[in-house]
Amino acid sequence: MPTTVLLDVDGTLVDSNDAHAHAWVQAFADAGIAVEFARVRRCIGMGGDKLMPEVSGISEDSEQGQTIAKRRGEIFKSVWLPRLAPFRDAERFVAALKARGLTVVAASSAKEDELRPLLRIAGAASLLDDATSSDDADASKPDPDIIVAALGRARAEPADALMIGDTPYDVEAATRAGVRVVGFRCGGWSDDDLRGTVAVYDGPWDLVARLDELFARD
Fold first, then answer.
1. Segment 60-100, tens digit of pLDDT
2. Against a cut of 0.85, is the pTM above it?
């Protein structure tokens, strides 16, 4: 039985994956660079350090990369963030985890200044024990740095933790950190994409009704 749950946020608690992809596409367009929405969408769940070279060949650390990344943040926060909504039962789901006596920590590739409003949208800001963002890690998912940082905040060993996320990058990052993973389909990825998980559920509304089933696996 785990003592700690690490939670992804985008695509797991908040319906925001498409919004992030649109913000990236517009930021590249503003720099005169055309990137396909579908290609960017498949990279959501990575941090900008991984996504930018993957879809454009541009390093986030370059002058151009920094300009594009800054513009993406401006677009996301001004245009898309006000439109976002939580997935059904997101707040109830986090509350149910806490009611079981679990330590719950957000483990997100989002920037710190975006993570806090996302957690408020999810209704989880006051429920979580702690949160880690891309600002707490040298490298974003699928590298394990964010997972390791979240484990540190929770003071938990990998064997005592469970990660819940919606992308193959969550699965890879947690697996590399030695943490078991539960997948959610609500972020737009298929069961095949989420291979390596111990179980896959539709989203918070599905798992909150089946927590006994999940924890009976241990």
1. 999 999 999 999 999 999 999 999 999 999 999 999 999 99
2. yes
Please give the mean pLDDT across all residues of the chain: 96
* Amino acid 111: pLDDT: 87
Contacts by 68-71, CB closer than 8 A, 24 or more apart:
68/27, 68/28, 68/30, 68/31, 68/33, 69/27, 71/26, 71/27, 71/30, 71/31
The CATH number, out of the four listed (1.10.150, 3.30.70, 1.20.1070, 1.10.10), of the domain defined by the range 17-83: 1.10.150
| Separation CA 65–CA 62 (nearest Å) | 5
How far out from the chain centre does Cα 115 lie?
10
Residue owning tokens 């498949």: 42
| Interatomic CA distance for residues 218 and 204, integer angstroms | 20
Q: Which of 147, 126, 125, 124 is nearest to 137 (CA)?
A: 147
> How far apart, in Å, are the Cα atoms of 126 and each of 14, 94, 119, 129, 156?
16, 10, 9, 8, 21
For domain 4-15+85-215, is the CATH number 3.40.50.1000? Answer: yes
| Torsion sign over Cα 190, 194, 198, 201 | negative
